[in-house]
Amino acid sequence: MIILDTHIWVKWVLDESQLPSVFCDKICEHETDGLGVSVISCWEVAKLIEVKRLSFEIDVDDWINQALSYPGIQLIEFSPRIAIESTQLPGEFHRDPADQIIVATARIHDCPLLTMDKKILDYKHVKLIQ
């Protein structure tokens, strides 16, 4: 399984042409192994709607339900172990709690993370898909 960060997941669902083809290829390549989406990504999508940085033509509940039904998607729950890991990430990591939880999720599940986020890409303590 690989973990998709929130922005990769949203762009893939909304319009995969917004993603570089290498990202689409990696997603397709891992569909059968599983595409993990942290439950915090659902919260992050809802927050982006709330602050009007993202909008859909359908209700956010419906969008999330549809997006979670895509081939290979596996919702990864927020566990106490992930919560603790997110507060104890080794080295220097930025203060965004959603990113901390997504990185902790990838570390706890020992799965590579697919992201375009420069701050995460620069973090040396998480496996990334390059």
**CATH fold topology:** Rossmann fold
Euclidean distance between termini CA atoms: 15 Å
**Share of helix among residues?**
40-55%
How many strand segments? 4
| Biggest sheet details | 4 strands, parallel
Please give the oligomerization state of what you see: single chain
The fraction of residues in strands falls at 5-15%
The CATH class label is Alpha Beta
Query: What is the typical, i.e. mean, pLDDT?
Result: 96
Give a structural overview.
The chain has 130 residues and is α/β, with parallel strands linked by helices. The chain has one domain: Rossmann fold (3-Layer(aba) Sandwich). It has 7 helices and 4 strands; from the N terminus they run βααβααβααβα. The protein has a 4-stranded parallel β-sheet with strand order 3-2-1-4. It is globular, with a radius of gyration of 14 Å. The two termini are 15 Å apart.
How would you concisely characterize the structure shown here?
This protein is α/β, with parallel strands linked by helices and 130 residues long. It has seven helices and four strands, in the order βααβααβααβα.
Secondary structure elements and their pairing?
Blueprint: E1 2-4, H1 6-15, H2 21-30, E2 35-38, H3 39-50, H4 60-68, E3 73-76, H5 80-87, H6 97-108, E4 113-114, H7 118-121
Parallel strand pairs: 1-2, 1-4, 2-3
Helix pairs in contact: 5-6
